[in-house]
C-alpha cells in the first residue's frame, strides 16, 4: 500500500479492475459530477453513459453537492472525492473499478442527512437497450454495443447497491441526457415509475435506484453498476487479483533518482490498468492490453514488450499468456492476428513483432517445459510462414507490404519505394525489405535454434541456424549503408539500400553481431544533434530527414501516430536494449551511452518534468519531451521501461545458467532491487558505492562494482516452490 499511496496525485482519474474493464476516458466531461457518467471500456468495446449519483431529501428534491477544498485525489485503484452540502455537511466518495466488471461509487455521508436518499441513476439509448426491468437489488437491462470493427457485443448490466433499495424507477423518455438530477425525468416526483419498459426505436431509457442514507457509524453505502458481457466461453467467476496483490508480485526498486524511482512503480500501475484476466472469450490467458480505449485488447506488436515487463512479476502468468493468446488463434497459414477481440476475429490486421527475444527472456525467468514446447511449435509455424511468404526468394531479408504492419506509419522509409505509401492504408502494395522485421526474423530463428533441443526437436536446430545465418549475412552485407553510416531498408524490387536513416536502423545491435567500426559509427549518431542526438531519445526519424517533424506534422497535418521524428518509447526501448547487450559483450562506450540515455528516457515520461506526474503516452517531442496530450492516450504499454531499469540500473540478468549482476556504468551510489521471485527463488540486488551484493534465498554473494558478479543455478540449494505462479 505504501508504494501505491506514493503515486497519489490530484490530476489523474484512470481506474481499472485488473481484469479487462477500464474506466479511463481520455477527455472526460463529467469528472466534476459524482459517479461514472463518462464511458467505460470492456476490452475494446465502449459502454456509456454509466451512472451518476444524487443526494435527495425525503421529498425527492436534490441536495446539491459541491466539490470540497482539495478536490479529487487519485491513486492506483481508487479516485477519492470530497463533497460538501450547502449547509456545510461533508461527504466522501470513493470511486473504484472492481474485478468482475463492477463500477463502484462508495459513500461516507453526513449523518444529518438520515431520512434522505442516495440515488444512482442512468440513461441508456433506447434503440440498443432491451430487457429493462426492476430486480431485487435495483434495476437491470441489456445493452448491445458495437466496436470499431462493426461487431456487436451484448452486455448484461445491473445498477444496485450495498443496501436494500427504497425505490426503483424506469422511465422511457425523448430528449437528451445529462448527469444532473434536476435535469432528469425523476426530478418531477413519483410519476411514471414503471417496473419495466418495452424496447423503443428512439429516445432514452432512464433508470434510478434509491437507498436510504445510513445512520451514523454505519458502513459506507456502495452504489454499483455491474457489466457482464455475454460471451460463449466467458467465465463469470470473480477475479481475485487486487491492486495490493498485483504490486506485491513485483520487486521494489530504488536508485535515488526521483524520476527513475517513480516511473518504476508507475509502470506497474500501467500494466495493472491494462491487465486482462483471461476469461474473455477469445482472450483465454492472462495478458496485458496495449492501452486504453480501442487499444484495450491484446495486440501482437506490443505483446513481446509485455512479456519483457511481466516476467518481473512472480509466476509469469501474464508474460506467458501474452504469447499463448495469439497461439490459441494462430491462422491456418501460420501467421498471427494483429489484435484479439473477445467476441470475434474480424478486421484484426497484422503486425510484425520481436517474438524471439521475448520468448527467451520469459523462459529464462519462469521456465515451464510444457508451455515452452507449445510456444516453440506455434512460433516455428509462424517462422516458416514468415520465411515462405515474406522472403520467398531466399534473400534473408523480409518484406513489409504496408506502412501500418510495422506499427510505424508516416515515415520517409516507405516513401523511398512508393510515393503513395502513406495514402494507401493497409493495402499490400509495398515491397520494402525492412531492417526492423529482418532483425525480428533473425532473433526468432536464433531463439528457435537455441530451444529446439530442449523441446525434443534437436533435428530442427540446424535448419533454424541456417536461416539465422542467412538473415545475419543479409543484414550485415546488404543492409549496412556506408553513406548513412547506419543500417537501412532495402528496396525489394531493385535490392538497393534506401539510405533513409530511421530509428529502426539501430535494431541490429540486438543481434550482438555488429562489427566494432560500424557500432562506433552508429553510436556517433546517438551523440550527433544533427541526426539522432536529440535531448530526449530517440527520434523515430533522423533530424536531417527532409520530412522530419518534432511535432509530428505530416503533409501539413498533425497526425495521431506519426513516425517522422517523434520519440516512441517502443523504439527507444529497442535502442537501449541493444546498447545494453553490446555493453555486456564488453563495449564500454555502449554502456556509457545506455547509462546516459536511460535516465533521459525516464525523465521524458513526466508532465512538465514534474517527478510527481509520471505518464506513458504513445509518443513525445524529441526536443522538449512534451507528450502527445492532444491524443489523450496515456498509460500506453508498448515499451519495456521497468525491465530496462531492473537490468540496466540494478544490473540483474538471468539466463538458463544462472544470475549475473552487471549494472551499466552509471554514477548512482546506491541501488536496491528485490525481492525478485524467479524460478522458485527470492533474489535481491544491492549496490553501495563500489560494493555489490546478490542475495538468493537468503544466501549473500559479494562483488565489486564494475566487475560481473555471477552465481550459477547449480551452485544454489534446490529452490522452494514459487507460490506466485
Please, could you describe this protein's structure?
The two termini are 21 Å apart. The protein has 725 residues and is an alpha+beta fold. It is built from 14 helices and 34 strands. α9 runs antiparallel to α10 and α12 packs antiparallel against α13 (588-604). A hairpin with a 4-residue loop joins β23 and β24. The longest helix is centred in the middle third of the chain and has 22 residues, at 369-390. The radius of gyration is 27 Å and the shape is globular.
Residues in β-strands, percent = 15-25%
- What is the number of beta strands? 34
Distance between the termini: 21 Å
Poorly predicted spans: none
What is the spatial order of strands in the main beta sheet? Answer: 7-8-9-10-17-14-13-12
Q: Helical element count? A: 14
**Rg result:** 27 Å
Q: Any idea what the shape is?
A: globular
Please summarize the sheet with the most strands.
8 strands, antiparallel
Oligomeric state of the chains?
Answer: single chain
Secondary-structure-based class equals alpha+beta
Q: Percent range for helical residues?
A: 10-25%
Mean pLDDT: 94
Walk me through the topology:
Blueprint: H1 2-5, E1 15-16, E2 21-23, E3 35-36, E4 40-42, E5 45-47, E6 51-56, E7 66-75, E8 78-84, E9 90-98, E10 102-108, E11 117-125, E12 129-134, E13 138-146, E14 152-161, E15 167-173, E16 204-212, E17 221-229, H2 243-248, E18 252-254, H3 258-273, E19 275-276, E20 287-288, H4 303-310, H5 317-328, H6 355-365, H7 369-390, E21 399-400, H8 412-415, E22 432-433, H9 435-451, H10 461-478, E23 480-481, E24 486-487, E25 490-491, H11 516-526, E26 553-554, E27 557-558, H12 569-584, H13 588-604, H14 641-649, E28 652-654, E29 658-661, E30 670-678, E31 681-688, E32 691-696, E33 699-704, E34 709-712
Antiparallel strand pairs: 1-2, 2-4, 3-6, 4-5, 6-11, 7-8, 8-9, 9-10, 10-17, 11-16, 12-13, 13-14, 14-17, 15-16, 18-30, 19-20, 21-22, 22-25, 23-24, 26-27, 28-29, 29-34, 30-31, 31-32, 32-33
Amino acid at each position: 500500500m505504501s508504494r501505491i499511496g506514493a503515486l497519489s496525485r490530484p490530476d489523474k482519474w484512470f481506474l481499472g479492475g485488473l481484469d479487462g474493464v477500464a474506466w479511463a476516458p481520455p477527455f472526460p466531461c463529467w469528472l466534476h459530477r459524482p459517479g461514472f457518467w463518462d464511458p467505460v471500456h470492456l476490452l475494446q468495446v465502449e459502454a456509456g453513459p454509466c451512472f451518476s449519483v444524487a443526494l435527495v431529501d425525503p421529498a425527492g428534491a436534490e441536495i446539491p453537492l459541491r466539490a470540497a477544498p482539495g478536490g479529487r485525489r487519485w491513486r492506483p485503484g481508487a479516485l477519492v472525492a470530497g463533497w460538501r452540502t450547502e449547509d456545510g455537511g461533508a461527504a466522501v466518495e470513493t470511486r473504484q473499478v472492481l474485478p468482475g466488471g463492477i463500477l463502484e461509487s462508495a459513500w461516507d455521508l453526513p449523518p444529518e442527512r438520515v431520512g434522505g436518499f442516495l440515488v444512482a441513476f442512468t440513461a441508456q439509448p433506447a434503440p440498443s437497450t432491451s430487457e429493462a426491468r426492476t430486480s431485487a437489488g435495483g434495476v437491470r437491462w441489456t445493452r448491445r454495443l458495437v466496436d470499431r470493427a462493426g461487431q456487436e457485443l451484448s452486455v448484461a448490466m445491473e445498477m444496485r447497491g450495498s443496501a436494500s433499495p427504497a425505490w426503483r424507477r424506469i422511465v422511457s423518455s425523448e430528449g437528451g441526457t445529462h448527469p444532473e438530477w434536476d435535469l432528469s425525468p425523476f426530478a418531477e416526483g413519483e410519476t411514471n415509475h414503471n417496473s419495466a419498459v418495452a424496447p423503443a426505436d428512439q429516445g432514452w431509457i432512464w433508470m434510478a435506484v434509491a437507498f436510504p442514507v445510513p445512520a451514523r457509524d454505519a458502513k459506507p453505502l456502495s452504489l454499483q453498476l455491474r457489466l457482464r458481457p455475454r460471451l460463449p466461453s466467458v467465465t463469470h467467476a470473480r477475479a481475485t487479483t487486487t491492486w495490493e496483490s498485483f504490486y506485491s508480485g513485483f520487486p521494489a526498486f530504488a536508485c535515488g533518482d526521483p524520476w527513475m524511482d517513480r516511473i518504476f512503480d508507475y509502470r506497474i500501475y500501467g500494466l495493472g490498468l491494462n491487465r486482462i484476466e483471461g476469461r474473455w472469450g477469445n482472450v483465454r490467458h492472462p495478458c496485458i492490453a496495449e492501452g486504453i480505449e480501442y487499444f484495450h485488447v491484446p495486440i501482437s506488436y506490443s505483446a513481446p514488450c509485455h512479456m519483457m515487463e511481466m516476467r518481473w512479476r512472480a509466476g509469469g502468468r501474464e508474460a506467458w499468456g501474452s504469447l499463448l493468446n495469439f497461439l490459441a488463434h494462430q491462422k491456418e497459414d501460420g501467421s498471427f492476428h494483429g489484435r484479439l477481440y473477445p467476441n470475434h476475429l474480424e478486421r484484426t490486421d497484422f503486425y510484425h513483432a520481436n517474438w524471439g527475444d521475448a520468448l527467451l527472456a520469459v523462459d529464462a525467468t519462469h521456465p515451464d517445459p510444457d508451455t515452452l514446447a507449445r510456444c516453440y511449435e506455434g512460433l516455428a509455424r509462424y517462422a516458416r510462414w514468415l520465411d515462405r511468404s515474406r522472403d520467398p526468394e531466399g534473400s534473408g531479408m523480409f518484406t513489409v507490404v504496408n506502412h501500418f504492419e510495422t506499427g510505424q506509419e508516416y515515415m520517409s522509409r516507405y516513401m523511398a519505394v512508393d510515393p503513395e505509401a502513406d495514402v494507401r492504408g493497409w493495402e499490400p502494395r509495398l515491397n520494402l525489405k525492412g531492417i526492423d522485421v529482418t532483425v525480428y526474423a533473425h532473433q526468432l530463428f536464433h531463439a528457435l535454434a537455441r530451444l529446439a533441443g530442449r523441446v525434443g526437436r534437436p533435428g530442427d536446430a540446424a535448419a533454424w541456424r541456417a536461416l539465422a545465418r542467412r538473415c545475419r549475412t543479409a543484414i550485415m552485407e546488404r543492409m549496412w549503408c556506408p553513406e548513412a553510416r547506419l543500417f537501412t531498408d532495402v528496396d525489394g524490387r531493385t535490392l538497393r539500400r534506401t539510405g533513409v536513416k530511421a530509428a529502426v536502423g539501430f535494431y541490429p545491435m540486438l543481434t550482438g553481431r555488429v562489427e566494432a567500426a560500424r557500432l562506433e559509427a552508429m553510436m556517433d549518431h546517438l551523440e550527433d544533434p544533427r541526426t539522432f542526438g536529440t535531448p530526449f531519445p530517440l527520434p523515430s526519424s533522423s533530424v536531417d530527414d527532409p520530412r522530419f517533424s518534432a511535432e509530428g506534422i505530416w503533409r501539413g497535418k498533425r497526425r495521431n501516430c506519426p513516425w517522422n521524428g517523434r520519440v516512441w518509447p517502443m523504439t527507444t526501448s529497442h535502442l537501449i536494449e541493444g546498447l545494453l547487450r553490446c555493453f555486456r559483450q564488453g563495449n564500454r562506450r555502449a554502456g556509457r551511452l545506455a547509462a546516459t540515455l536511460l535516465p533521459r528516457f525516464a525523465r521524458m515520461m513526466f508532465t512538465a518534468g514534474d517527478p510527481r506526474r509520471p505518464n506513458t503516452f504513445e509518443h513525445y517531442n524529441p526536443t522538449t519531451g512534451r507528450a502527445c496530450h492532444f491524443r489523450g492516450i496515456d498509460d500506453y504499454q508498448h515499451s519495456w521501461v521497468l525491465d530496462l531499469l531492473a537490468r540496466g540500473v540494478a544490473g540483474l540478468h538471468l539466463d538458463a545458467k544462472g544470475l549475473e549482476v552487471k549494472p551499466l556504468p552509471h554514477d548512482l551510489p546506491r541501488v536496491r532491487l528485490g525481492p525478485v521471485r524467479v524460478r522458485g527463488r527470492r533474489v535481491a540486488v544491492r549496490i553501495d558505492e563500489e560494493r555489490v551484493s546478490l542475495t538468493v534465498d537468503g544466501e549473500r554473494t559479494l562483488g565489486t562494482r564494475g566487475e560481473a558478479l555471477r552465481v550459477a543455478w547449480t551452485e544454489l540449494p534446490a529452490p522452494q516452490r514459487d507460490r506466485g505462479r
